[in-house]
Specification:
Helix content is 44%, strand content 18%. By secondary structure, the chain is α+β, with helices and mostly antiparallel strands. The chain has a single domain, classed as Endonuclease, Chain A (3-Layer(aba) Sandwich). The protein has a four-stranded mixed sheet, with helices on both faces. The longest helix has 21 residues, at 112-132. It is globular.
């Protein structure tokens, strides 16, 4: 009988340490992350699948929708002190083909319906943008 080999597949560019850190963050969500995750999980928003505390390269993003390559980041008060870092991180993710939208924790806690509406709009725009861009086989020739 063959021994079952377990092989863990990682997203290109991540490391075992980043994946482990994301797993740990999933166990310790902030109240705002918990509230938004409860609204996004199990395809509750427009049938879209979201991932929570997802590793992308060396980054761990709060929420990610692979279908629309949409990253959702929640910002607490600490982010007021790291604006330049957040902007650089967003720019790097944009260059990798991801769209990043940000919300303050208080928006999630007090205006969840509005946040979900903005996420829905951003996901629709991202899906439209990706469906209109030519794919490798569509370039003719």
């Amino acid at each position: 009988m063959r021994e079952k080999q377990t092989q863990h597949h990682r997203i290109r560019g991540t490391t075992p340490a980043v994946v482990a850190a994301a797993r740990q963050l999933r166990l310790n969500l902030t109240p705002a992350e918990q509230k938004l995750w409860k609204a996004l999980q199990k395809r509750q928003l427009s049938g879209l699948k979201f991932r929570c505390q997802h590793a992308i390269g060396s980054f761990i993003v709060d929420f990610y929708c692979p279908q629309c390559r949409l990253v959702i980041e929640l910002d607490g008060d600490i982010h007021n002190q790291q604006v330049e870092y957040d902007e650089a991180r967003t720019e790097q993710l944009n260059q990798l083909g991801y769209r990043v939208i940000r919300f303050h924790n208080s928006d999630v806690m007090h205006h969840l319906d509005h946040v979900l509406q903005q996420i829905r709009q951003a996901s629709e725009q991202s899906i439209d943008r990706h469906s209109k861009s030519p794919r490798m086989g569509d370039l003719g020739g």
